[in-house]
């Protein structure tokens, strides 16, 4: 599949992904406030969601140009954020610390970590420079 044709479905996927991301983070913030998810941590997630929206809408709106660079920036930000969230909880568990969250959070973060790095790889592929003809 050509890069130009792959960007549209990837932008749609990115946009659709923000709905459960926003709902999950909002639920997590209100349900577990005081247990490691403060307003500053929630704000960082809102920045990631905003970057996803900006990149995907820009990609879908302007068909004459590519917004693959913005998609790569959004996925890169989200991948780093997800990596840090996963490793923080994983290291706490290895150290024997008790984290006041459901045990499934680490498993969910592991799955989203894989998704975020696959998304980043796809976005980087779409945004790589073209060679002159």
Brief digest:
With 133 residues, the protein is mainly α.
Characterise the protein shown here.
- By secondary structure, this protein is mainly α.
- It is built from four helices and no strands.
- Helix 1 packs antiparallel against helix 4, helix 2 (39-61) packs antiparallel against helix 3 and helix 3 (68-94) packs antiparallel against helix 4.
- The longest helix has 29 residues, at 3-31.
- It starts with a helix and ends in a 6-residue tail after the last helix.
How would you summarize the topology of this molecule?
Layout: H1 3-31, H2 39-61, H3 68-94, H4 104-127
Biggest pleated sheet: none
Oligomer: single chain
Q: How many β-strands, per DSSP?
A: 0
Number of helices: 4
Residue windows where pLDDT falls under 50 for at least 5 positions: none
Our measurement of the CA-to-CA distance between the termini, rounded to an integer number of angstroms, reads: 19 Å
Return the string of H and E elements: HHHH
- Overall pLDDT: 86
The share of residues in helices is over 70%
Radius of gyration: 17 Å
Name the beta content range. under 5%
Which structural class should the secondary elements be placed in? mainly alpha
Instruction: Give the overall shape.
Output: elongated
């Amino acid at each position: 599949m050509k890069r130009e044709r792959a960007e549209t479905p990837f932008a749609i996927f990115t946009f659709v992904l923000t709905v459960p991301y926003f709902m999950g983070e909002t639920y997590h913030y209100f349900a577990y406030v005081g247990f490691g998810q403060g307003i500053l941590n929630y704000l960082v997630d809102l920045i990631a969601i905003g970057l996803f929206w900006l990149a995907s809408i820009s990609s879908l709106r302007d068909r004459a140009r590519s917004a693959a660079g913005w998609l790569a920036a959004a996925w890169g930000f989200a991948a780093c954020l997800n990596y840090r969230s996963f490793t923080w909880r994983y290291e706490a568990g290895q150290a024997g610390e008790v984290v006041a969250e459901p045990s499934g959070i680490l498993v969910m973060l592991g799955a989203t970590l894989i998704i975020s790095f696959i998304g980043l790889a796809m976005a980087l592929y779409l945004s790589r420079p073209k060679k002159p003809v």
